[in-house]
Amino acid sequence: MSKTSTTSVNTGNENEVEQIPRRAYRKTLHISKPLGHVNIPALICGGVASLIAIVLDLMHRYDDMMVSMQQTYQEKPFFLESIETWHRSWDWVLAIILATVTAYVVLDSAGKGKRIFFGLASVVLIMMFSPLLMLWGMFWFPIVVIVAVIFAWVFSYIYSTLHVMPCELGLKMKLVKKKKKKLGRFKRHKNKTTPFKKSKLVKKLEQFDSDTETVKPPSFQPTEKKLNTDA
């Protein structure tokens, strides 16, 4: 085979290998949803959620729940004697901060499982702070903060499902790189003269062919019959 034919075969194989990752890249990064953002949507979700919780507090929608909770803390096994609470404006500030943080973490988390787990964990932790403060004789009714966090989680979760978040885009890029490594069947050899590294099976087949070529088949010549030379 001439040099021009070998170089053309090598360049053809190189082009074929270069086209494999590009096709995979195009397929995996086909985005049907719009690209989402984190900072401004987190502020909007947290602000709207905290505003809803504060308006409900100003409308005295939580008063019955607060009275029932005070009665449970005054009975067994808590026996809370003096009920000391802080001003409701501190609850509003805490609701704004935690709702914004919740929305930011949900929007910056890749995967529905992580978002659901963070929402449930944040609500449970806020609820557990109330009996913890009761040990120091401080009564805290966390319904305003819980309502704000729940609404912020719902708004941010819906936004993250309708958009492709930047954290998910980075995860897709990592998956593409892994697929490139798997699709790269033809590995580059260090020596430029041999463009692709041969597998062990190909080497054994070539060695077997070379051995069969070196062994010459035995030559069978027919024996000549003796002719009668009698005169």
What does this protein structure show overall?
The protein has helices at 3-28, 39-58, 63-74, 88-107, 112-134, 143-162, 166-183, 200-214. With 231 residues, the protein is mainly alpha-helical. It has a domain at 39-164. The protein is elongated. The model is unreliable at 1-7, 20-29 and 185-195 (pLDDT under 50).
What is the gist of this entry?
The chain has 231 residues and is mainly α. Helices cover 67% and strands 0% of the residues.
Rg computed from alpha carbons, rounded to a whole number of angstroms: 38 Å
User: Termini separation (Å)?
Assistant: 61 Å
**Beta-strand percentage range:** under 5%
Choose one word for the global shape: elongated
Q: Would you list the SSEs in sequence order as H and E?
A: HHHHHHHH
Care to count the β-strands? Answer: 0
Q: What is the helix content?
A: 55-70%
Largest sheet, strands/sense/barrel: none
Low-confidence stretches at least 5 residues in length (pLDDT < 50)? 1-7, 20-29, 185-195
Q: How confident is the prediction overall: mean pLDDT?
A: 75
Structural class: mainly alpha
The number of helical elements comes to 8
